[in-house]
Write a structure and sequence with these properties.
Layout lengths: L16 H32 L4 H6 L4 H23 L5 H29 L15 H20 L2
Helix pairs in contact: 1-3, 1-4, 3-4, 3-5, 4-5
Length: 156
């Protein structure tokens, strides 16, 4: 015997516009916090390196500057994503958690870069002015990325 499903047996549900709008606004708010942390992270990296990092990457097309900036952005993006995913469920507390953990991640990344610059041979942040791509630029970028992964994993 076959069963016929009628429209009465299927629950379609309702849409709560308040929840929908709240979700969209929450998404925008988390995006703004994340983008702000990424921007602050770039400014911090620029402050730690000689010259104008934006100019060196986008105008001079310096490969070592691009490697360092790219590694920093990827690191901070992982930190921001982790901060958002592990934040509190309430929107206000979640945004505060994300902002504080994200900004703390920027500080940790800056401290790690400064420490690597002191401990490793050569003046590493000066690599951003070197016009020829070099292995030290890749090593520094990978190290900064590794710090970002550990930084993100440490978030709770």
């Amino acid at each position: 015997m076959s069963t016929i499903v009628s429209a009465a047996d299927t629950e379609i549900g309702t849409i709560d516009p308040t929840l929908l709008v709240g979700g969209v606004l929450g998404t925008l708010a988390y995006f703004v916090v994340g983008a702000a942390v990424l921007g602050i992270g770039f400014v911090a990296l620029d402050a730690l390196t000689p010259g104008n990092l934006r100019h060196q990457v986008y105008v001079d097309k310096n490969p070592n500057a691009a490697i360092l900036a790219g590694a920093n952005h990827l690191s901070l993006a992982i930190i921001v994503v982790t901060a958002i995913l592990t934040s509190s469920d309430g929107i206000a507390q979640g945004l505060a958690d994300s902002a504080v953990h994200g900004l703390f991640g920027v500080l940790i990344q800056a401290a790690a870069l400064s420490l690597m610059n002191l401990v490793l041979p050569g003046h590493l942040v000066a690599l951003v002015k070197e016009p020829k791509m070099c292995g030290a630029g890749w090593a520094l970028g990978a190290s900064l990325f590794a710090v970002g992964l550990v930084n993100a994993a440490a978030l709770s």
